[in-house]
Fold this sequence. Notes:
By secondary structure, the protein is an alpha/beta fold. It has one domain (40-318, 334-370): 3-Layer(aba) Sandwich (Alkaline Phosphatase, subunit A), CATH 3.40.720.10. 32% of the residues lie in helices and 25% in strands. The chain is built from 13 helices and 16 strands. The strands form three sheets. Strands 7-8-6-5-9-3-10-15-4-16 form a ten-stranded mixed sheet, sandwiched between helices. A four-stranded mixed sheet has the order 2-1-13-12, with helices on one face. β1 (6-16) and β2 (23-32) form a beta hairpin. α11 (266-272) packs antiparallel against α12 (276-300). It is globular, with a radius of gyration of 20 Å. Bound molecules: zinc ion (ZN).
Amino acid sequence: MKRLILIFAxxxxxxxxxxxxxxxxxxxxxxxxxxxxxxxIPDFKVDGKDTKVxxxxxxxxxGMGLGAVSTAMFANGGExxxxxxxxxxxxxxxxxxxxxxxxxxxGTAYATGHKTNTGSLGVDTCGVALPNIPEILTPLGYACxxxxxxxxYGATPAAFYAHQASRKNKEEIWMDMASSPLAFxxxxxxxxxxxxxxxxxxAIEKNFKIMYEVDEALLKSSDKLGYLPEKAENxxxxxxxxxxxxxxxxxxxxxxxxxxxIEGAHIDHRAHSNNTEELITEMLDFDKAVTExxxxxxxxxxxxxxxxxxxxxxxxxxxxxxPQDAYIQNVFATRGHTPVMVxxxxxxxxxxxxxxxxxxxxxxxxxxxxxxxx
Length: 374
Ligand SMILES: [Zn+2]
């Protein structure tokens, strides 16, 4: 039987105490609830083995720090699929010009293996385009895809196909999809796409079939497909089924293997707004997508799953809790991003390579190395 999660959400009021920037968090409380969902424990037959990796699934929880993971885990009765995994690491997320990164710089590090300045997408600190994972792997016979519940021009998905000096260049970012080697993309939304100039849409549609609603015939017959639903955000029926759809689509088209990036974008947004209830909802939806990926990897035996974050948001900390009673009380130190390391969880062959403290750019370079592209 599903249980309700009691939440003591705490809103941050940060008080600076002295010149050394010591801070005290004063909590303001509110209530809410979400539903517990259990978790999945895979067999660990190929986990950490030095056997062949054909496919890599990189799952990015935007803004997902250890505080967000802990909050969701304890609220979910002390379990999440990601925390059932046995390979754990940490990731440093700093940008070149900023100790505290944004999603553009960290997404670029994950997508290209190079750190850059905040605000920059797929370009180095001089504005020169950096090849991203899909651009490197596709010519080698890998089918590549991205899934995000953010808009397609959001910094994390965009880092895997765009090359722009500024994440604010939305129209140019959309246009970069026209020349992307991605085989599959899905993000929000149909309406955002239809707002683009006709010339942009025509250019994209020379490269991709576009689908607004799930169409089995298009899914079967298309070599390159973009799925732009009406609603990706706040839609419990988006991330999990679309992850499943992407895995099926890419598996069927992978000559050598595939690479899939999945983003849970709104963990960041809920932490920005210091909303514990919605943070848990997003985290639990994200963990369901993790479960899909882990189940696929368990069955396949040649798939490596990596779950991490581009940065921490909210300075989320736990104050009190009781998983037995599904009770937590947490606090937020900020409404912005923080520079703390983020957790990494991995499952599958060669997962042990991520069992350390590493840079966000290292994660990309290791993926490329594992797949024989570095
Ligand atoms: Zn953010």
